[in-house]
Amino acid sequence: MSQTQRTAYARDVRRFLNGHYFDSDRDRRIRAFLHHLIEDNAEALTGTRDVAILTGPNVMGKSTLLYQVAYAVHRQHVGEGADTAVMARRTVTRTIGTREHQVHPTHTPVLLLSLEAATTVTKFNELVVEVLDYEKSVAKKVTALDLLLQHGVRLLIIDDLHQLILTEKLGRYALDHLKAVVTAVGEYGVTVIFAGANLSHHKVMDDPQVTGRAYELTVAPYAADTGQDAVAWQRFLKECGSLIAPHLPMASPGMLHNQLPGLILEGTHGRMQAVVNLVRRATVAAIEDGTWCVTEDHVRAVPAAKLTRDEYTGAARPAPAPEPLHPTVSVSHRERGGVG
């Protein structure tokens, strides 16, 4: 391949990797738990329902994981196997101006809300009506609960819960309002998932009405402190390697998870966003320079994000040497593909 051809092919691979969800055993376990929770809440008798709280440090892939859950639940309710009776368009009478009108709320089985900074009761209600494509003024005429039920919401995801400032009165009012909404929709079998950064240390976790019926799920960075941690880390790299191997015909078995796990861990500190970014950039670089396999030079050439440098390694301390990891994940066969 000429340099021009490699550059064009690298662009195609980069586009593919940019749009690909890097799955993992960790994410699959969390998704399975959430799907079981959603089913249990939908099938349980009347009463309050359990909620889930997804938390962890910043840029660990929490929101990306929740989008996968949201997509799956949405497809379940509107896909080919969906119940047409449930999907039937609802007719609601609303007063617009001085007249009553029959309107048909759009079927919205999943609603994902990202709280704004210093969220208040008014801001939350306006967020609900805006996401459902209404004018803000509707928030003064219809309650958030009525809108959620009229649109057939079955899963409500409230992200960025850490934006609530509970040291202020309006923030405490907003939390009380959220708890009331969660309790009310739970009576109809709706599941609520809260998500946010570092919620374990947030005052919202001190409220027994929140934690009393909540499951806390923590998304932590990958590490190699124990043998179990090392295996989980290398299994994730193995899965990443299987994804990029068809595009790198010179890649050897275990290219990432057996040859480079310590170096990748040093440069990313196990943060999902940093790992995915490194794998993408290193793969593209390996195609562009014609080596067709990811090497130490490719890994070292990817700059670390500022959060990685400052929060995890400390700006005043030199980065630690990569911890040697012995191959613990075997590859039964080599998958070849891509271009030569």
TrEMBL record:
InterPro entries: P-loop_NTPase, TniB. It holds the Pfam family TniB. Residues 313-340 are annotated as: Disordered. It comes from the Bacteria. This is AAA+ ATPase domain-containing protein. It comes from Knoellia sinensis KCTC 19936.
